[in-house]
Amino acid sequence: MRNQKTAELQAEAAALRRQLAELERKHQLCEEDQALLRDSTHLLRAVAEGIAEGVLLIDRNFKIIWANPVAAAEAGVPLTELLGRYCYATTHHLSEPCSSPDDRCPVQAALSRGEPASATHRHIDLQGNEHYVEIKVYPLREETGEIARFVHVSRDITERMRMEAALRRSEEYFRDFFMHAAVGFHIFGPDRVIIDINEAELQMLGYAREEIVGKKMWPDLIVPEQRAQFEAHWQQILRHGVVHNLEYTVATRQGARVEVLLNASARYDEQGRLINTRGSVVDITARRQAEKKMQEAIALKAQLNAFISHELRTPLTALREGIALVIEESATVLSPEQKEFLLIAVKNADRLQRLAHEVLSLQKIHRGENLLSAQQANINEAVREVYTVMVPLATRVNFVLDLAESLPLLSFDHDRIVEAVTNLVNNAFKFTETGRITLRTRCREQMIRISVQDTGCGIAAEDLDALFIPFKRVGSASVRRKNPQGAGLGLSIVKEIAQLHRGTVEVESLPGQGTTVTLVLPAGASES
After folding, report:
1. Digit-coded pLDDT (tens) for 366-406
2. What is the DSSP string of 294-333?
3. pTM, entire model
4. How far apart are CA 197 and CA 209, in angstroms?
5. Nearest to 426 by CA among 350, 502, 373
6. Contact 135, 121 (CB under 8 A)
7. Three-class DSSP labels, 469-528
8. At 6, is the secondary structure helix, strand, or coil?
9. Contacts of 88 (CB under 8 A, 6+ apart)
10. pLDDT tens digits for 407-416?
């Protein structure tokens, strides 16, 4: 009996030892699991605290029970002050969860659907600063399957939103510029079909947008005889990426023809494939018509010049010589009145001859005929020649020649310079009744200066800018009446001759005291 009891006790002891060993094993596994859990918790915390996103742990009542430093920074408060707050109070300054259509609460969405939810929100921190965030919410469940908490992950996308807004504004700006520019714009795809066109070009062509976009190519819009020209230009833009100032004639929807100027450039992707070409179109029809009228006016002017040269100057010469002959041969039989009328006729014939000469001279300069026949010489020789010819005419004034003792040689057209200086002296005689006229040469700062200084009536400051306008006569009405023979071309010719020699004309004048006009020429050789 005792032995049986002993055996039972031994069996129970063995069972207890086995149970104890199993408990020790399970305890060890539990400690290992706890260590792994602690390590995992530390790892997750380290990851959550080290990532760039803000992370919140929120309970079912929307209260923040844990947060990482990034989330605290987004909220604008210390980490310790963030815990225990409600998320909607922290991010939106609200007293209840978000319900706005623009800011739907992702925590509520995750709670109601039982799955992760996302949203883009505009958050306001406690200092009132706005932040745009991209939110993802993940529900955490108990062993029973019930949702107990939420992981709230937010990424600050404020800068991205600002860049996107700036890009939208830029696109809107350039779209508005494209659509409402005063010149035509269009865009071709790689197949040369028009994929966009602005209002100005639509109005120019007379088409509606839906009749052009996606349906027509540029060759469909130009006149048939220029389509081969377009193919050559298309190859040019493919080779060089740009074409400039191409002239085309487009046919409008109503059948009218419009002359246009086209500039275009190509866009390529990183692999060098053509994306599209952009073209600007300017209506030059009015300009072409103006050019045609200008050519007609030039032709008419040429006819007028020919008339002046061949049909006016020749009979004027004959008329003048005939009148002079009558005066000379009939001097003894002419009454004073008859002689006076004949002398007036001679003066008017001379005036018409001078006018014809000045008009022809100015037109030759404008047409570039015989621009310069330059030779190197001393400018004083040409100036002295003018003085010698003009001095007998100085019956009312003291005409003085004041030449610089030594001047550098200058390559100039002798006849043109004589003509220019003669015009200057003639003007001085016209507007100086008494006093002094000085014809002077000087060299200053490598510029040769030929000046005519008078003590005449002078020129008002407001008239100086009009001195070189052809057929424009300045001065008071009384001054013009005293000098009716002028046509207003002399100074225009002087200016043109100066420019041919790379020079200028300077004018200084005081009303009632006199005028100085100076022909300024660069010293050294001039181009012929």
Report:
1. 555 555 677 888 889 989 988 988 888 788 889 999 998 88
2. HHHHHHHHHHHHHIIIIIIHHHHHHHHHHHHHHHHHTTTT
3. 0.44
4. 7
5. 350
6. yes
7. CCCCCCCCHHHHHHCCCCCCCHHHHHHHHHHHCCCEEEEEEECCCEEEEEEEEECECCCC
8. helix
9. 62, 94, 95, 96, 97, 98, 105
10. 888 888 887 8
